[in-house]
């Protein structure tokens, strides 16, 4: 029988456009908050998995997992670093789950961190541009250009109005307004999105996620291990509502909360070169990983109460929702305009603001999705940020332009 893995604690730093803090300091802060939230002493951690994508490209050095272990005092714990471009955070989470399921550890600390401001805009843009296939990179194709091509094809094929993409941006920005860890806590409307500068037509500025600094962390435990929620109650620092130190903005009244379990996790690769895909709007890694995780969790898309979707570009939220089976092909845009994916809709999507507004520090994004969903499942969040009664949550973190996808199902 598969070992049950639970998320005993979570924590993160605010996502920002720029911070003076070091990458290790960001990671350690998120980790300490997760450990405090779980009531777990650092000495109890058996394994540390650190997700980071760009350290070498931005001249931030190597050996990051070892440096973090030392900063946290995790003497004797195993430690490694995971990299999977923009799906790095979810891949690190996957590694932590498998470590516990294998029996190699009883308590694992998984951290994702990125400091994209460590490089100038040109350096960071170059590093991200190299995430595509080398032949496509040589022809000058970038992730935003792929996003623009996909957006144009989606709108044409499904006779969708340009407002459909703008509605995704407006929704996610609205969700981030009351999220103290979001990079953009600014409400916008559809007209704002439509009037923003062109990035890769038809995509405009508000259709694209930002570059971000930040870190997120989770503590994973096996069912056989002591339940960390029976330990110390989280401190005020863990649940502060101030944007400088916030992790969730709760009132701290969560002593009896349940630690959500990992009902399923799965990953899959797809055709690396976008030009070689039979259909540019069909992202096979998303579809395959989704099918696998629903099978492993023993649920269907209709069972999901809240979802975090990888909206690096607004069009990706629509395409992924369809590839995952939440909506029929060509209908996610209608569902969005109808309010189905709003916080009070049938399927709330990206309640924390998504990559679009919460931010997208590559190594931390996948874990920030898990953190958001844990807060939702525990009922930690105040009214206006909370999906009431959520019991089943879904996340997808995507590498590159669908080259690799990681899906997770959590259940309360």
Number of strands: 11
Task: State the assembly state of the protein chains.
Answer: single chain
Low-pLDDT stretches are: 224-246, 248-253
Distance between the termini: 20 Å
Supply the helix-strand structural class: alpha/beta
How much of the residues is beta strand, in percent? 15-25%
What is the overall number of helices? 13
CA radius of gyration is 19 Å
What does this structure look like?
With 412 residues, the protein is an alpha/beta fold. It has helices spanning 23-38, 64-72, 88-102, 121-129, 134-138, 143-157, 163-176, 190-195, 284-297, 314-323, 332-337, 354-358, 362-378, and strands at 5-12, 47-51, 78-82, 107-115, 198-200, 203-204, 213-222, 261-269, 306-308, 392-399, 404-411. A five-stranded mixed sheet has the order 1-7-4-2-3, sandwiched between helices. Strands 8-11-10-9 form a four-stranded mixed sheet, with helices on both faces. A two-stranded antiparallel sheet has the order 5-6. Helix 1 (23-38) crosses helix 2 (64-72). It is globular. The two termini are 20 Å apart. Residues 224-246 and 248-253 have low confidence and may be disordered.
Nutshell version of this structure?
The protein is an alpha/beta fold and 412 residues long. The chain has 13 helices and eleven strands. Strand 10 (392-399) and strand 11 (404-411) form a beta hairpin.
What is the element layout, followed by pairings?
Layout lengths: L4 E8 L10 H16 L8 E5 L12 H9 L5 E5 L5 H15 L4 E9 L5 H9 L4 H5 L4 H15 L5 H14 L13 H6 L2 E3 L2 E2 L8 E10 L38 E9 L14 H14 L8 E3 L5 H10 L8 H6 L16 H5 L3 H17 L13 E8 L4 E8 L1
Parallel strand pairs: 2-3, 2-4, 9-10
Antiparallel strand pairs: 1-7, 4-7, 5-6, 8-11, 10-11
Helix pairs in contact: 1-2, 3-13, 6-10, 7-10
């Amino acid at each position: 029988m598969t070992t049950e893995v639970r998320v005993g604690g979570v924590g993160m730093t605010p996502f920002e456009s720029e911070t003076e803090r070091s990458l290790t300091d960001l990671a350690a802060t998120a980790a300490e908050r997760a450990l405090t939230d779980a009531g777990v002493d650092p000495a109890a951690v058996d394994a540390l998995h650190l997700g980071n994508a760009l350290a070498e490209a931005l001249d931030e050095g190597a050996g990051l997992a070892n440096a973090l272990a030392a900063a946290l005092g995790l003497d004797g714990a195993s430690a490694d670093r995971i990299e999977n471009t923009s799906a790095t955070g979810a891949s690190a989470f996957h590694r932590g789950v498998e470590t516990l399921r294998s029996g190699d550890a009883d308590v694992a600390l998984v951290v994702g961190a990125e400091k994209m401001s460590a490089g100038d805009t040109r350096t960071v843009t170059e590093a991200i541009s190299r995430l595509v296939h080398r032949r496509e990179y040589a022809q000058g194709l970038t992730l935003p250009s792929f996003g623009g091509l996909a957006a144009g094809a989606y709108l044409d094929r499904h006779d969708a109005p340009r407002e459909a993409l703008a509605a995704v941006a407006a929704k996610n920005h609205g969700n981030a307004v009351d999220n103290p860890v979001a990079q953009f806590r600014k409400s916008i409307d559809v007209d704002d999105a439509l009037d923003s500068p062109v990035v890769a037509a038809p995509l405009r500025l508000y259709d694209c996620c930002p570059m971000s600094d930040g870190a997120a962390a989770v503590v994973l435990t096996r069912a056989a291990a002591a339940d960390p929620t029976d330990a110390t109650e989280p401190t005020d620092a863990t649940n502060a509502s101030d944007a400088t130190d916030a992790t969730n903005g709760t009132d701290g009244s969560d002593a009896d909360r349940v630690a959500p379990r990992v009902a399923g996790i799965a990953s899959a690769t797809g055709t690396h070169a976008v030009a070689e895909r039979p259909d540019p709007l069909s992202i096979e890694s998303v579809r395959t990983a989704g099918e696998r995780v629903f099978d492993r969790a023993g649920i269907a898309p209709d069972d999901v109460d809240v979802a975090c979707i990888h909206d690096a570009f607004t069009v990706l939220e629509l395409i992924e929702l369809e590839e995952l089976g939440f909506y029929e092909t060509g209908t996610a845009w209608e569902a969005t305009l109808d309010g189905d994916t709003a916080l009070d809709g049938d399927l709330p999507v990206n309640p924390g603001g998504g990559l679009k507004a919460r931010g997208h520090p590559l190594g931390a994004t996948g874990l920030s999705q898990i953190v958001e969903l844990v807060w939702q499942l525990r009922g930690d969040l105040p009214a206006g940020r909370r999906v009431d009664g959520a019991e089943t949550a879904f996340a997808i973190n995507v590498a590159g332009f669908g080259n690799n996808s990681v899906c997770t199902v959590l259940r309360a």
